[in-house]
Design a protein that fits this description.
The protein has helices spanning 2-8, 22-32, 93-98, 118-127, 162-176, 196-203, 241-250, 260-270, 291-296, 310-317, 327-345, 351-354; strands spanning 18-19, 56-57, 77-78, 107-112, 136-140, 149-151, 184-189, 192-194, 213-215, 217-220, 228-231, 237-240, 276-277, 301-303. The strands form four sheets. It has a seven-stranded mixed β-sheet with strand order 6-5-4-7-12-9-13. It has a three-stranded antiparallel β-sheet with strand order 1-10-11. Strands 2-3 form a two-stranded parallel sheet. The protein is 31% helix and 13% strand. Residues 102-308 form the Fringe-like glycosyltransferase domain.
């Protein structure tokens, strides 16, 4: 199968210019590209689909119990969460040495909004993660002293927001001024949910004095000479303060309504700054992902309030108002074990509905979910 994929990789037109979900896209590529076996010349008569293998587990769990020692499948392979990102939780001495303790007070949260969402969305942020984000500013197309919001001077548009985002970065730098405590800027939408303690833990082992660009990484035209990686805006984009200054100095918008997250990625790639993926940052809602994925790595952010209860999402998946960087990671040990047991007890899902689930971002007709 590996040889079959390799032999067809360069000769096949991909269904989209965007690279979003590597595992889904690989499965789809294998399923849709039925070509002759390069060694035997015999055509593959059926499409190749994923099979569920009970011995490959999303997380490690022993299926043995005291009364039933041989019950259930055993795990031969399982995924492991990433090393906890800060010296706070790690027993690794080399991590402790290179990590810098980071809290919400070191992060400037620049929140994009517009007049029509002031009452609908900002109130949700204020009831959830805002309590841990003392350095937060709401940037809008109009100034509203009741919130308050800061006007960017840029009229609202339905998609794109490049001019607005550049204005936000300029205004943010002016607002930050000489505040020595601010090390990072996080650019988020007004319908982004996040855990400030988990964002802080994520940032603790990145050097804020260098050019650092973190988020949920997407790709555009990656097989073409002009292809590039970028971080999708809905999940939140994390920038070190030196990088914000570089962006303001060197990056421009081809048009006011150009896609801001893509333009940032394109410009930064041209400047030699890599888009570093951050596990746990999510462009969509919890229900748009497999539960196994969310249980493996503590979520850092989600996007979209549509058809969901954002306050429940915050409590359930992001630690709630009492969450801190250590509790969610520690509590996951017990939660993952219990959840994995439940998942093993499920009936096998049909292949297409089970492991080839799409996020919904492609089928919406919108290439960018901003």
């Amino acid at each position: 199968l590996a040889e079959l994929v390799a032999s067809n990789a360069q000769n096949t037109t991909l269904p989209s210019d965007f690279s979003i979900d590597a595992s889904h896209e690989l499965a789809r590529f294998i399923y849709e590209n039925v070509t002759p076996d390069p060694h035997s010349g015999t055509p593959v008569s059926v499409r190749i689909t994923l099979k569920s293998a009970s011995y490959i587990c999303p997380t490690f769990v022993s299926m043995r119990t005291a009364g039933t020692p041989n019950r259930g499948p055993r795990c031969m392979l399982h995924a492991k969460p990433e090393e906890p990102p800060a010296g706070l939780l790690s027993t690794s001495e080399h991590l402790k040495e290179r990590c810098v303790y980071t809290t919400g007070s070191h992060i400037y949260f620049a929140i994009k909004t517009c007049a029509k969402f002031h009452k609908e969305r900002i109130t949700i942020i204020e009831r959830t993660w805002a309590a841990n984000a003392q350095n937060r500013r709401y940037y809008s197309d109009v100034a509203d002293v009741g919130i308050p919001t800061i006007s960017t001077g840029i009229p609202n548009v339905q998609t794109g927001h490049c001019a607005k985002t550049m204005a936000i970065l300029q205004l943010s730098l002016k607002d930050i001024g000489e505040q020595m405590d601010i090390r990072w800027l996080m650019l988020v939408d007004d319908d982004t949910l996040l855990s400030v303690p988990r964002v802080s833990a994520l940032l603790s082992c990145h050097n804020h004095t260098e050019f650092v660009y973190l988020g949920q990484r997407y790709g555009y035209r990656l097989r073409a000479p002009d292809g590039f990686n970028y971080h999708t805006g809905g999940a939140g984009i994390l920038l070190s303060l030196p990088l914000v200054r570089l962006i303001v100095e060197r990056c421009t918008c081809p048009s006011a309504s150009a896609p801001d997250d893509m333009i940032l990625g394109y410009c930064l790639q041209a400047l030699g700054v890599a888009a570093v993926p951050a596990a746990g940052m999510h462009q969509a809602r919890p229900q748009d992902y497999a539960e196994e994925l969310l249980l493996l790595q503590p979520p850092v952010s989600f996007h979209k309030f549509w058809n969901t209860d954002p306050e429940y999402t915050y409590r359930r998946w992001l630690g709630g108002s009492s969450g801190n960087s250590s509790v969610p990671l520690a509590a996951y040990t017990q939660r993952v074990t219990a959840a994995a047991l439940r998942l093993h007890e499920r009936q096998p899902c049909p292949v297409v509905a089970g492991f080839l689930q799409e996020t919904g971002l492609e089928s919406s007709g919108k290439r960018l979910d901003l």
